[in-house]
Amino acid sequence: MNASTKEDAARPAFGAVLVDHMAVAAYGTGAWAPFEIRPTEAIPMHPGAHVLHYASSCFEGFKAYRGPDGQVNVFRMDRHIERLRQSARALALPVPGTEQLDQMIRALIDRTRRSVPDAPGALYLRPLLFGTMAAIGGAATPPTEALLIVIASPVWDYFEGGAKPLRIFVDDQHQRTAPHLGEVKAGANYAAAIGQTVIARQQHGADQVLFCPQGQVQETGAANFVLLRDRHLLTRSLDSTFLHGVTRDSLLTIARDEGYRVEERNFDVAEMLAWVSTGEAALAGTAAVLAGVGTLIHGEEEHRVGDGAVGPITQNLRSQLVDIQQGRVEDRFGWLTPV
User: Is the dihedral of CA 5, 206, 272, 243 positive or negative?
Assistant: First the structure.
């Protein structure tokens, strides 16, 4: 085992370790109270809390990076803040203000700045909003009390074992979530995908499930899906059925800037399988960044993606995105917020 492998093995699993403080704000009587920075610890929860019965919860996930000069920058913080606010509106939760979220995130990073790892690590930031109103008869009533918490975790690779070609099970029988809520980053959406992911892992050794209801390619349980070949990128066009990923948007922006033909449209499983015989496939998301797919499993048949390795186009686009995130090249799109 070489030094790099030993170092990777010593790192905690993605999200397993939290920093020692968190930012907390409570909503009640029609207003948000000032936030506090508190030690990271268990929070009291009434057994009748709205979130425990009716899943009134949404969250965000994004990263702060320490650049070569030591400066800590948050990647596309404004987009993630706005998406959390959109999710809150969709779930009829109290909507936190943009300035409030900005201040909470900055205050937490400042308090735990020493926990931001050097590259290739990052500090993963997780704002979490949920209904706390104690009323088990509130199935049709939005919560009038809520809690907003920002926690953080030093992270490295999302998939166990680091960068390797992924095995993806193609599920054309199930939907990841309710079609009108797919673009909401709700905890319930992720819960809905866990069962199918566990089955695919047990039966096929899959890392993730690509949901393709009625044979139309959509997204995996935790990331958007893209196809790549010969300066050509194909991904599903945005609609309400799946999450509008910030990493997806960043990837498409870089590809267009590099002269790629970028297509956003619906496509089916048959077209996808034909594409990957000579092309590439990848998952795009904050946690995974851009992770190459080596095998697609459809039914009982395995389809190798290209030569089965992480493809050169995937590697190139990932490197360009990571270089911007980690401050190694010019931030030509204005995506970094110094904190």
Answer: negative
